[in-house]
């Protein structure tokens, strides 16, 4: 008797969830009825672990259609979805009908929003976000144990307490990400909102995701946000298919350092939050993620050089001083001195003078040579492109971290970044002045 029941239940699940059958990573798809672009239909909609939204219906939609789904779920909750879709496949599904019946599966491209339930900020007690690709060492333990390497990272930003909790299958998911790359949810972020308004909480979460992306060198985002009331009812859920990037172990702030992540967030947050509108630090986080991803080294270096130069204008954005054109070297020199970036530069900026050339290990001189060769002649400066990339990316890391007022441990990619734990150095000393620049 029991066996039969189990089988019935199993078969029900298979029949009712075409999406879970097609995409094994879709959990709890929403079945619903309503309209898709104005036409009445039944549909199923859900989210995959990489954030993308998938849709199954018997309507044929064009590739670049802006798709608008409006209706109710089987348990009478409002459902709304909108964005661009891409056809995955059309499948024959039911031969019982005389006419040919097809189910079409679609996957979102770019941003696609899906909301279930009704939003009401006055009812919100707790927000729970699903966060992708974040790897971290906790600073506390949800079970309250004494073991310092906890499963929870707590940090307070703008008076709002953020609690990142590893998911139960965290170790397995991180193993898989390390092995295969890709995107997956690794943890949840919980916030008891107290008296904070929606605008402030949203900003803090957005800023924290940008800073964490910068720290880990990969895109870290929330893809799901659940609203709970004080009785613990989930009355509204927002899914978004934010563009994510594949997981890679290219950290700038070490995930296995006990307090580096927490300290990084606390130290950089005030500057990031106050200056992001003016200096677009969130864009620099995107550039950093991109130039550390797979792709042609030339393209990544060009993006890197653009970012370094845009960032250098933060300190000196003048075209000329006393009728003299402000050179790239001068801009970089002023930046290093202003933000105390630990780099090697020729003493008193002697190399800024046309009559002097840079010493062998002047970081600014090396950067400018690499940059000019690639920008003007589409060639790497030296016979070792990887070294150019690593040395200049290290320069960018240091500039960005110091601009954000960070003064503690980071990973130096140039001096053996893959020797995890041994390449960690701090940013509290610099710049180093090189004496006696060579002259022509
Ligand atoms: Zn120099």
Give a quick rundown of the structure.
This protein has 440 residues and is an alpha+beta fold. The protein has helices at residues 2-16, 18-22, 170-180, 198-216, 260-279, 281-291, 297-312, 328-338, 363-377, 385-403; strands at 30-36, 39-47, 53-57, 66-73, 78-92, 102-117, 126-132, 152-157, 160-166, 185-192, 222-228, 234-240, 320-321, 324-325, 344-346, 409-411, 424-426, 432-434. The strands form four sheets. A six-stranded antiparallel barrel has the order 1-2-3-6-5-4. It has a two-stranded antiparallel ribbon with strand order 13-14.
Features:
six-stranded antiparallel barrel, 18 strands, disordered N terminus, globular, alpha+beta, binds zinc ion, two-stranded antiparallel sheet, 3 domains, 32% helix, 440 residues, single chain
Describe the structure.
- It is a single chain.
- The protein has 10 helices and 18 strands.
- It is of the alpha+beta class and 440 residues long.
- The strands form 4 sheets. It has a 6-stranded antiparallel beta barrel. It has a two-stranded antiparallel ribbon with strand order 13-14.
- Strand 8 (152-157) and strand 9 form a beta hairpin.
- The longest helix has 20 residues, at 260-279.
- The chain is globular and about 80 Å long.
- Residues 1-15 and 417-422 have low confidence and may be disordered.
- The site of zinc ion has 8 residues, from strand 15 and helix 9.
């Amino acid at each position: 008797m029991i066996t039969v029941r189990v089988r019935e239940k199993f078969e029900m699940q298979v029949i009712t969830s075409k999406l879970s059958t097609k995409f094994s990573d879709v959990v709890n798809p929403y079945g619903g009825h309503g309209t898709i672009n104005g036409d009445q239909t039944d549909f199923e909609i859900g989210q995959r672990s990489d954030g993308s939204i998938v849709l199954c219906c018997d309507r044929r939609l064009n590739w670049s259609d802006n798709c608008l789904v409006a209706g109710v779920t089987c348990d009478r909750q409002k459902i709304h979805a909108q964005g661009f879709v891409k056809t995955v496949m059309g499948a024959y599904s039911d031969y019982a009908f005389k006419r040919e019946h097809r189910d079409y599966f679609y996957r979102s491209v770019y941003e696609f929003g899906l909301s279930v339930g009704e939003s009401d900020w006055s009812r919100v007690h707790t927000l729970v976000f699903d966060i992708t690709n974040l790897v971290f060492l906790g600073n506390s333990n949800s079970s309250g144990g004494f073991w310092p390497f906890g499963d929870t990272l707590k940090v307070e930003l703008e008076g709002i307490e953020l609690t990142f909790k590893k998911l139960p299958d965290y170790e397995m998911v991180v193993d898989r990400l390390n092995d295969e790359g890709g995107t997956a949810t690794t943890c949840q972020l919980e916030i008891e909102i107290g008296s904070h308004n929606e605008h402030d909480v949203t900003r803090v979460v957005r800023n924290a995701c940008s800073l964490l992306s910068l720290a880990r060198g990969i895109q870290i985002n929330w893809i799901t946000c659940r609203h709970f009331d004080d009785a613990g009812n989930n009355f509204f859920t927002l899914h978004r298919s934010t563009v994510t990037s594949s997981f890679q172990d290219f950290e700038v702030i070490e995930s296995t350092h006990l307090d580096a992540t927490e300290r990084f967030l606390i130290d950089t947050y005030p500057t990031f939050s106050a200056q992001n509108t003016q200096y677009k630090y969130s864009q620099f986080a995107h550039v950093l993620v991109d130039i550390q991803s797979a792709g042609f080294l030339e393209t990544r270096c060009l993006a890197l050089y653009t970012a370094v130069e845009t960032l250098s204008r933060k300190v000196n954005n003048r075209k000329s001083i006393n009728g003299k054109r402000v050179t790239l070297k001068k801009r970089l020199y002023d930046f290093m001195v202003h933000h105390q970036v630990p780099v090697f530069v020729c003493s008193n900026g002697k190399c800024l003078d046309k009559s002097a050339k840079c010493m062998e290990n002047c970081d600014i001189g090396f950067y400018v040579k690499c940059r000019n060769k690639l920008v003007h002649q589409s060639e790497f400066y030296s016979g070792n492109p990887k070294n150019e990339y690593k040395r200049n990316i290290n320069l960018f890391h240091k500039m960005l971290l110091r601009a954000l007022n960070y003064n503690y441990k980071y990973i130096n990619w140039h001096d053996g970044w893959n020797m995890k734990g041994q390449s960690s150095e701090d940013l509290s000393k610099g710049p180093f002045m090189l004496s006696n620049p060579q002259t022509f």
